[in-house]
Structures are given as structure tokens and as C-alpha cells.
From TrEMBL:
The keyword Nucleotidyltransferase does not apply. The chain crosses the membrane at residues 35-63, 84-101, 121-142, 154-173, 185-203, 230-252, 272-292, 304-325, 345-367, 374-393, 405-426. Keywords: Cell membrane, Membrane, Transmembrane, Transmembrane helix, Transport. InterPro entries: MATE_fam, MdtK-like, Membrane_Transporter-Flippase. It comes from the Bacteria. Residues 431-457 are annotated as: Disordered. Its main location: membrane. The lineage of its organism: Bacteria, Pseudomonadati, Myxococcota, Myxococcia, Myxococcales. This is MATE family efflux transporter.
Length: 457
């Protein structure tokens, strides 16, 4: 679990580090309004990306189970099916996003003073959707067969390139036009294009079995339906979570630009706090899928216990730091005292509940690895649409303060944990999960399957 999770965790930290650098450039040099414009745009982008991430979870489940059971022909079918799905969705969502971005931002009650900047920034950033979807897919394919290192190397190059381009395009250095906030969006688009091209070229040159290629359309029907059957619940789950964040952001927007900027700055700290949980959740899902595919249900309890120890332990350390010095963390991104004050309240209320979020991803990882993605979808919907969104509206109005939103977010974490753990300990996820693999030679090590050491890149 450690060996598999560590590269993914490093990759997540890299991506978050870029997000931090980006926020520092924007918040410190372009001001509160620019940071608020990014904040209101982010939930919309994440709604669309969430659908892609949900479908790639199905890819990871199918690939890991096929790999664990040594069904390599089914693995190839999953690659072809997912490639067609993800590329098509990326293009469709980009077109829809470009058309409806202004309407959605207005519906979110975006403050008028940042509306135009938010529309321009969002429309540029949406161009990265097909590229981002493709990168999600390849990462999921490689992780499904046990290779979490290769995506890390190319992600590192992408982050470095984007971080270098940010100030160049924002401030017009080296003869480039001065694009301001839009420069950060163009930096993301260009860096992802370079990273995707390099990664596909590398995988095809090494003849990696899960390298995307022109699909064989004659076998796409059944496996595409299976991918959708497993992936759609997760895609719905993640997209509805993201839509819920759109609603929550809209409620925060109602308290003004300062509250929106505070929410955006504090959310950057959330990104760091959530990384271990989300990374171990992905690793647990893959390990559970591989072992269930191999008929080894006896290993699941061990995966669960170590997942709780690692994810929970790291998150507790982050919680202690966040709750102890919230002001110092927020000043990394903003200097306005009016913004820092509500941000401190957020981190002390929500930060105290980070552990709930961490443990949810452990139990959800096993449930998803068994293919029961509909269950985790229902849990997320209850937490979000029964607790967080209505609670944020009611508490913020009752308290006449944006702090009501912070309390609703914390409460939703507790509800998610209770529901997820109850389902895990009920054992219902074991149904139809433990099919024994067909007779045959042992599944090859990931490095043998690739024909090279995964550390060469």
C-alpha cells in the first residue's frame, strides 16, 4: 500500500503545489478580486472534471480486476472503451461549457465586479477539459495494473512547465503579451497538451499494454455498457458533489466578495488536508479490486486497517497544524485582514473534522473496489443534498453569518463517515465481489507486463 500510494501522493502534492503557486501569484499580485474570480470558476470546472474522474474510476476497477484475474483480453477492451468515452466526453463538455459559462456564473450569484473576469478565465480554462480527461484516463489505466510511478514523472514535468509559464503569461515577460489572470489558464492548457503528447508517445514507444491506441470498435458495445454501469454512479456522485459545491459557493457569494475570497483561500488548505485521504482511497480501491478479482477476500480487512492507520494518522497531523496556526496558513495567499478573519473561522470549524473525511475514503475505497459504486453515490448524495446544501442555507440565515456554511460542511463529513462505515461493516459489499479467477499462470508483475522497469521514465 505504501509503495503503490507514495507516487500517487507525491503526484497529488505536486498538483496541489502548483495550485498553491498559482493562488499565490493571483492573490498576492493580482488582488482579492482575481482570487475571487478563480474561486467562483473552480466549482464549475470541477463538476465537469468530476464526471471524467468518476468514469475513470470504472476503468480502474475493470482494469485492476481483469489484471488480478489474468483476463488480459478484457483489460484491452476496457482500454479501448474508456478511450472512446473520455475523449468524446471531453470534447462535448468543452463545447457545452463555452456556451453556458456566463449563464451558470450569473446563476451562482457571482458578484458583479468579478463577473466578466470570471467568464473570460473560465472559458479559457475549459479548453483543457479534453486534455485533462485523457490524462485522468491514462493515470487510471496505469494504476489499475500497479504502475503509479510513470504518471508521476510526466505530471512533475507538466507542473514545472505550468508554474514557469504562469508569471511569464500573467506579467508579459520575455516578450509575451501581458494576459493577467487569463495567463494562468493558458499556462494550464499548454502544459497539459505537452504532458499528454509526451506521455502517449512514451507509452506507445515502450509498447505498454494499456497504452491508448486507435480502438477496435467491433468489441466496444458490451464493455462500454459495463464501463458505464460501474462508472456512471461514481460520475453522478462526483458531479453532484461538485454541483453541490456550486450551490455552496453561491451561498457564500451572497455574503460578498470578501467571504468568497476567504472561502477560496481556506479551500487551498483543504486541498492539502484531503490529499492523503484521496490518494489512499484510490490505492485502496485498486488493491481491493485486484484482490477481489483474484478471489482473495481474506486480504480486504488488512487493507482496511492499514488504510485507516495511514490515512487517519497523516490527516491528524495536518489537522493539528491547521487548527493551531490558521492565520499563518491563510497569509500565504492573502494579506487582507478582512479576508483572513472568516478564513480562520473556516479552518477551525472544518479543519477539526478532517479526520472524518479521511476515514470515509478508506471504507469507500473498498466498496468501490468491489464494484458497488452506487452505494457510495447514495452516501454522498445524502451527505451533500440532505445535510450540506440545505444546512448551509439554513444555518447561514439563522446565524446571519457565513460561519453557518462552515458548520454545515463539517456536519456533512460526519454524516458521510457514519453511513460509509455502517455499510462496510455490514459486509453487503462482498456480494458478487469475490469471483475466483480462471486457472492459469500467476498475474505478471506490472514491470514484467510492461517489458521494462516502471522506474525508467
Amino acid at each position: 500500500m505504501i509503495a503503490f500510494s507514495l507516487p500517487m501522493l507525491l503526484g497529488s502534492f505536486l498538483q496541489t503545489a502548483y495550485s498553491f503557486v498559482n493562488a499565490i501569484w493571483v492573490g498576492q499580485y493580482l488582488g482579492t478580486s482575481a482570487l475571487a474570480a478563480v474561486t467562483v470558476s473552480f466549482p464549475i470546472v470541477f463538476v465537469l472534471f468530476a464526471i471524467g474522474m468518476g468514469l475513470t474510476l470504472a476503468t480502474n476497477i475493470l482494469v485492476s480486476q481483469s489484471y488480478g484475474a489474468r483476463r488480459m483480453d478484457e483489460l484491452r477492451k476496457a482500454v479501448d472503451s474508456s478511450t472512446v468515452l473520455m475523449v468524446s466526453l471531453g470534447i462535448v463538455f468543452t463545447i457545452l461549457g463555452e456556451l453556458f459559462a456566463p449563464s451558470v456564473l450569473r446563476a451562482m450569484d457571482t458578484p458583479p465586479e468579478i463577473l466578466d473576469a470570471s467568464i473570460h478565465y473560465l472559458r479559457i480554462f475549459l479548453l483543457s477539459l479534453p486534455l485533462g480527461f485523457s490524462l485522468f484516463l491514462i493515470r487510471s489505466l496505469l494504476q489499475g495494473v500497479g504502475d503509479s510511478k510513470t504518471p508521476l514523472y510526466f505530471q512533475f514535468g507538466s507542473v514545472l512547465l505550468a508554474a514557469a509559464l504562469d508569471p511569464v503569461l500573467m506579467f508579459g515577460w520575455l516578450g509575451f503579451p501581458k494576459l493577467g489572470l487569463n495567463g494562468t489558464a493558458w499556462a494550464t492548457v499548454f502544459s497539459q497538451l505537452v504532458s499528454l503528447t509526451a506521455l502517449i508517445t512514451y507509452l506507445r514507444a515502450k509498447k505498454v499494454p494499456v497504452a491508448p491506441s486507435w480502438p477496435r470498435f467491433d468489441h466496444l458495445g458490451p464493455i462500454t455498457w459495463k464501463t458505464l454501469r460501474i462508472g456512471l454512479p461514481s460520475a453522478v456522485q462526483q458531479s453532484l458533489v461538485s454541483i453541490g459545491m456550486v450551490f455552496v459557493t453561491g451561498i457564500v457569494n451572497g455574503f460578498g466578495e470578501v467571504s468568497t475570497a476567504a472561502f477560496g483561500a481556506a479551500s487551498r488548505i483543504d486541498q492539502i488536508a484531503f490529499l492523503p485521504a484521496m490518494t489512499f482511497g484510490m490505492a485502496i480501491s485498486t488493491l481491493a479490486g485486484q484482490n477481489l478479482g483474484a478471489g482473495r477476500q481474506d486480504r480486504i480487512r488488512e487493507i482496511f486497517l492499514w488504510g485507516c492507520l495511514f490515512s487517519g494518522g497523516i490527516t491528524l497531523i495536518i489537522t493539528a497544524v491547521t487548527v493551531s496556526v490558521p492565520g499563518a496558513l491563510l497569509r500565504i495567499f492573502v494579506t487582507d485582514t478582512a479576508v483572513i478573519e472568516p478564513g480562520i473561522a473556516y479552518l477551525r470549524i472544518v479543519g477539526a473534522c478532517y479526520l472524518f473525511f479521511a476515514l470515509v475514503f478508506v471504507s469507500n475505497g473498498i466498496i468501490n473496489g468491489a464494484g458497488h459504486t452506487m452505494t457510495t453515490t447514495v452516501i454522498s448524495l445524502i451527505s451533500l443534498w440532505v445535510i450540506r446544501v440545505p444546512g448551509a442555507y439554513w444555518l447561514s440565515r439563522r446565524m446571519e453569518s457565513v460561519k453557518g456554511v462552515w458548520y454545515a460542511i463539517a456536519l456533512s463529513f460526519a454524516v458521510s463517515l457514519t453511513a460509509s462505515m455502517a455499510y462496510y461493516f455490514s459486509g453487503r459489499w462482498k456480494r458478487s465481489a469475490g469471483k475466483k479467477p480462471p486457472k492459469g499462470p500467476p498475474a505478471p508483475d506490472a514491470r514484467e507486463a510492461f517489458g521494462h522497469s516502471t522506474g525508467e521514465a
